Amino acid sequence: MRVIAVANQKGGVAKTTTCINLGAALARNARRVLIIDMDPQAHSTLGLGLEPHEFNKTILNVLEPPRSPYHMDLKDIIVQSKTPNLYIAPSNIDLAGEEYRLIDKLGREDFLNTGIKRSRLPFDYVLIDCPPSLGILTINSLKAAREVIVTIQPHYFALRGIEEFKETLDLMRENLKHDLEVYVLITIADMRTNLYQEVFHALEEYFGEKLFRTVIRKNIALAESSSHGVPVLEYEPRSSGAQNYLALAKEVIQLEKEKPEERLFRKN
Ligand SMILES: Nc1ncnc2c1ncn2[C@@H]1O[C@H](COP(=O)(O)OP(=O)(O)OP(=O)(O)O)[C@@H](O)[C@H]1O
Ligand SMILES: [Mg+2]
Fold it and tell me: How far is the CA of 10 from the centre of ligand 2 (A)?
């Protein structure tokens, strides 16, 4: 099982769009996929056509300490989406208070990690949608993951944001003894501009093979599909958005071969 966090402390850089649509594209390739919504905004939950406030069991219950009466096993809060092979651990606004509640708890960085490890999930992929901050919810997500995809929208300050993010990862390596494979994905790209070309070359130089070759172009169908509560593959399969996320899934699947130590769940 590969656990991949999708993160960037910057807001609006397609973290959620990537979780939903990469998730759906992996599911289309016969992978069983779980999206964990770690954002109190609950956009992944909404984007899969589910109403966050209707859930009384959410990821919040998994983050409760095991002795709390509200604690639940991750597998007991998972719901199936309308897309075959695609499941979600929903969130809602109640998660917003969790940042404060966890702050003085012992082992606070590890609750999600423990929740995932304990429940022996039958998934090939777990994609974690992080909130736009570097708080305790993001730290829990990064600690639970072996890989992280940092989504970047190309603009002049993109590299600065990445530097900050890498500092956090370095701190985690030192203080929490946790190492992560970092990949970078360019999203919401307007390929026609000179700025795009410049930023692409700068990122390529900086990240080398850790930069996905697939670039997610700006595409209105991606924005529209979320508001209709379905992945773009179902909403507009011929759109560039659908094609780009299928290509990304191919690249992600290609990496399975380089990770023999993380045996996939599938038997076929
Ligand atoms: N490739 C794209 N083309 C056009 N619009 C996009 C694209 N990707 C995402 N969007 C739109 O951009 C907005 C931000 O995307 P999204 O919510 O996925 O970002 P996010 O990083 O999860 O944001 P937040 O930090 O608030 O969680 C949304 O309205 C989404 O529909
Ligand atoms: Mg989001």
Answer: 10
Provide the token pair at 196.
């795009």
Reduced to 3 states (helix: H, G, I; strand: E, B; else coil), residue 114 is helix
Residue 183's pLDDT is what?
93
25: nearest Cα among 79, 82, 78, 85: 85
Q: Is 123 exposed, middle or buried (0-12, 13-18, 19+ CB in 10 A)?
A: buried
CATH of the domain at 213: 3.40.50.300
Look at residue 20 and tell me if it is in a domain: yes
Ligand nearest the Cα atom of residue 150: 1
User: Is residue 263 in a domain?
Assistant: no
- 215 lies in some domain: yes
The answer, yes or no, to whether residue 203 has pLDDT greater than 80, is yes
- Residue 89 identity: A
Cα 260 to ligand 2 centroid, rounded to whole Å: 31
Residue 16's domain spans which residues?
Answer: 2-256
Site to substitute for ligand 1 among 17, 18, 152, most atoms within 8 A of C-beta: 17
Residue nearest to atom 8 of ligand 1 (CA): 14
Which of 40-44, 118-122, 230-234 is predicted with the least confidence, judged by mean pLDDT? 118-122
Task: Provide φ and ψ at 212, rounded to 5°.
Answer: -60, 140
Whether 260 has a pLDDT exceeding 70, the answer reads no
Q: Could you give the number of structural domains in the chain?
A: 1
pTM here? 0.93
pLDDT digits (tens, 9 = 90+) for 46-95: 999 999 999 999 999 999 888 889 899 999 999 999 999 999 999 999 88
pLDDT value, residue 186: 93
Residues with CB under 6 A from ligand 1: 11-17, 39, 41, 43, 132, 187-188, 216, 218-219, 222-223, 226, 241
Residue 262 lies in a domain: no
Is the per-residue pLDDT at 208 higher than 60?
A: yes
